[in-house]
C-alpha cells in the first residue's frame, strides 16, 4: 500500500451500472480508507516514525463525511496488534513484519488482507531521501515513490509536532479485477500518480495527511 502513505480513493462514481465497475470502486474506497489510518501503524513494526504503542485517535474527512477512528496499538517482537473503533464499528488488525515485507491480517478470521513493502530504517529518514514501496490487496496492486522534502512544525488538535514532510505519488492497478475487460478510462486515469503529503513525527507517527480528495489528522494520543 503506499500504501505507505495511503491516498484517498480518487475514483469517481462510474456512469455505467455494471456490477464489476461498482465493485472495483467499492474495493478501492474500502482499501484506501483502511490504509489512511493503517499507514500510521505499518512501519517496520518497531520504527520511531510510526505509531507502535499507545492509543491514537484520528479524524478523516473525505467526500463530505467526517470519520473518527480510535486505535490502541501494542508491539510484541515482529508483530503490531491494532484494536480500534471506527464509527462505532470495532476492528482488529495485525501487522507481521518479517523477511523485508509486512503482511496485514484483519477480521475475525485474521486472513491476510494486504502485503506491503517494509519501511526503510529511521537512519535513512533525512531531507531528500527517496524510496519506492509496493503493496498488494487481493487482485489490486500499487506502486509508490516517496520523498522526504523537509522538516516542519505541524499543529493538530493533538498538539504541535516537529515532523518530516513526505510527498508520495501512487499508481494503482485494478486491471485483474476486470478479468480481461477494459478498465473504464476515467477510472484508470484517476488511479495514476495520486499525490499525497504526510507529516511524520518521531515517536508519534503520522500526525497529518492530505490528498486531493481527503485529509487526516491526529486529534488525540495517549500512552
TrEMBL record:
Residue spans crossing the bilayer = 20-42
Q: Which keywords has UniProt assigned to this entry? A: Membrane, Transmembrane, Transmembrane helix
Show where the DUF3108 domain sits: 134-211
Q: Does the keyword Membrane apply?
A: yes
InterPro entries with a match to the protein in the record: DUF3108-like
**This protein's name:** DUF3108 domain-containing protein
Amino acid at each position: 500500500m503506499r500504501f505507505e502513505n495511503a491516498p484517498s480513493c480518487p475514483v469517481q462514481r462510474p456512469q455505467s451500472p455494471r456490477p464489476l465497475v461498482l465493485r472495483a470502486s467499492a474495493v478501492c474506497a474500502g482499501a484506501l480508507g483502511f490504509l489512511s489510518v493503517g499507514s500510521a501503524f505499518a512501519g517496520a513494526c518497531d520504527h520511531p516514525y510510526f505509531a507502535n504503542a499507545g492509543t491514537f485517535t484520528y479524524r478523516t474527512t473525505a467526500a463530505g463525511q467526517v470519520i473518527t477512528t480510535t486505535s490502541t496499538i501494542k508491539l510484541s517482537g515482529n508483530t503490531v496488534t491494532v484494536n480500534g473503533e471506527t464509527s462505532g464499528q470495532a476492528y482488529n488488525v495485525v501487522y507481521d513484519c518479517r523477511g523485508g515485507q509486512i503482511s496485514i491480517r484483519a477480521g475475525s478470521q485474521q486472513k491476510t488482507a494486504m502485503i506491503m513493502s517494509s519501511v526503510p530504517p529511521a537512519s535513512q529518514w533525512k531531507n531528500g531521501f527517496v524510496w519506492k514501496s509496493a503493496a498488494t490487496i487481493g487482485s489490486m496492486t500499487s506502486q509508490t515513490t516517496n520523498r522526504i522534502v523537509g522538516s516542519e512544525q505541524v499543529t493538530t488538535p493533538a498538539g504541535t509536532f516537529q515532523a518530516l514532510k513526505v510527498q508520495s505519488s501512487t499508481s494503482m492497478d485494478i486491471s485483474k479485477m476486470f478479468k480481461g475487460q477494459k478498465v473504464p478510462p476515467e477510472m484508470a486515469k484517476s488511479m495514476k500518480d495520486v499525490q499525497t503529503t504526510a507529516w511524520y513525527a518521531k515517536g508519534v507517527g503520522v500526525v497529518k495527511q492530505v490528498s486531493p480528495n481527503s485529509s487526516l489528522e491526529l486529534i488525540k494520543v495517549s500512552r
